[in-house]
Amino acid sequence: MQRVENGGPVFYRFEQWRDADEVKHGVFTRLGGVSRAPWASLNVGGTVGDTLDAVKENLRRIYAALHVDGERACTVWQVHSADAVVVTGQTPGRRWLARADGMVTDVPGVPLTMRFADCVPILFFDPVRRAIGIAHAGWRGTVSGAAASTLRAMQAAFGSHPADVQAAIGPSIGPAHYQVGPEVVAAVEAAFGPDHGLIRRANDGSAYLDLWAANRLALERAGVRQIEAAEMCTASRVDEFFSHRAEHGKTGRFCAVISLRERSQ
Asked: What is the DSSP letter of 16?
């Protein structure tokens, strides 16, 4: 990934879209905002204890950094599901569109925004049908199929072909830090089969889940062939990212944004 620091919020761009003319995107760090500790400083989580004024200013800075219209930005109330919604624009009088963990659109100039603090950001771009998507996948979303569900929403709404879709797996908790219990191990085995190789056992028998590999596998099984993975661990990089696990729940949320460029831009 390319790190971008131009005097404002610090963010990362995926190499495959670094020079893409039709899509704007960024996975933002925790750097460059106005929030105070423990949400310092670019927190976009409105339900974690931070002030709403700080969150609004942080979002304003984020949209300005990407040169997108924050007044048109859309988001969802994330509930660790596999539900995805088709976005045409904001719902009047509401801050969020639905309870869901995936969004897709083919409307230029409508930024799709989601919040993270260890869960996996997954971004999608179909350059053929000119459509985009974004998904939020913790372990529940991963085993429920959030990645494939968002892809299917692109297929149903825009006629996207999986082989044309470019996917990007963003910074999230890495396999060395994501210890999970037996209920998660069982859910992973039920979702991916017994020979998935997604669980690593430590010497003491404890289990660690590789969310990066799990979502890559889910995308590959759905027919996606163009996948870029950041493989950046939020739990080991709390200097740059919020981490719910590493910071024991008292932390903020960073965001990922993707938008189709308007034709006039």
From this structure: G
Q: In what order do the strands lie in the sheet with 254-260?
A: 2-4, 11-13, 23-28, 254-260, 112-116
Nearest to 142 by CA among 99, 184, 98: 184
Q: Which residues pair with 135 in a beta bridge?
A: 102, 122
CA separation for the pair 249, 165 (Å, rounded): 34
Bridge partners of residue 3, in order along the sequence: 12
Between CA 136 and CA 115 the distance in angstroms is: 8
HSE-up of residue 192 (Cα within 13 Å, Cβ side): 28
Give Cα 160 to chain centroid, integer Å: 20
What's the pLDDT tens digit per position in 44-54? 999 999 999 99
**Mind listing the pLDDT tens digit for each residue in 182-206?**
999 999 999 999 888 999 999 999 9
Q: Left (φ > 0), alpha (ψ -120 to 50) or beta: where does 153 sit?
A: alpha
- Per the DSSP assignment, residues forming a β-bridge with 117 are none
- CATH 3.60.140.10 describes domain 2-260: yes
Extract the tokens encoding 49. Answer: 């204890």
Domain locations in the chain as residue ranges = 2-260
- On whether the CB atoms of residues 99 and 83 are closer than 8 A, the answer is yes
pTM: 0.97
Beta-bridge mates of residue 121? 136
Which residue's entry shows tokens 């989601």? Answer: 114
Contact in structure between 262 and 108 (CB atoms under 8 Å): yes
Single-letter residue type at 19: D
Q: Which residues contact 113 (CB under 8 A, 6 or more apart)?
A: 44, 59, 73, 74, 75, 134, 255, 256, 257
Residue type (1 letter), 166:
Q
3-class SS at 66?
Answer: helix
